[in-house]
Fold this protein.
Amino acid sequence: MGLFDRLSRVVRANLNDMVSKAEDPEKILEQAIIDMQEDLIQLRQAVARAIATQKRTEQQYNKNQSEANNWQNRAQLALSKGDESLAREALLRKKTVAEAAATQKTMLDQQTTQVDSLKKNLIALESKISEAKTKKDMLKSRAAAAKANEQLQGTIGRLGTGSAMAAFERMEDKVLELEARSQAGYELAGNNLEEQFALLEGGSDVDDELAQMKAQLTGGSVSQQALPASEEKASPSSNAAVDAELEALRKQIDNL
């Protein structure tokens, strides 16, 4: 294979690829319909010309046929009158006109066949154009749907890395953080409440113990009243010690 053949093939391949990429289905379909409409106009004009030619040929054929019959009648008339020479001349004119009529009859048959063929082609082209228009509308709708779906898929694809989707992800993280903080605060509040009840429960034990000690002290002071007077004089110092110890216990309880 020569170098120029290879270069030519490469150039043609690249041109075909460029043309294929540049083809828009909607525009190509519209142009195809326009081309078919132009072909239809030309075919109609051709049919009209063929029919007009057929009509003229038919008129000439009928005229020559009528004239041939007329010369036939004249030849018969001249012969009946005994003018053989005139009858011969009439027959010669009839022959010439009859030959022209025969030629025109052949042309008329051919033109009739041609007109019939053109009419069939015209009907077929009109049917194809009608079908093409219907298919064009359907293909345009499918192409529009495909483009819309492609745009939708592109939009969905961009959502994964787009700023809008990133903002949604950030807000989701913030909501999760707020929920975690709320849960932590609830748990801490629950722990504080448990501690407060524990302190109250512990405080009740201390109060019971304090009440018991008060009862003991009260019982001790009664027994001391039954002692002799000499011993009663020595009790103030012991009572002061007990009061001091009681005060110390109270301070301990207050500090709990």
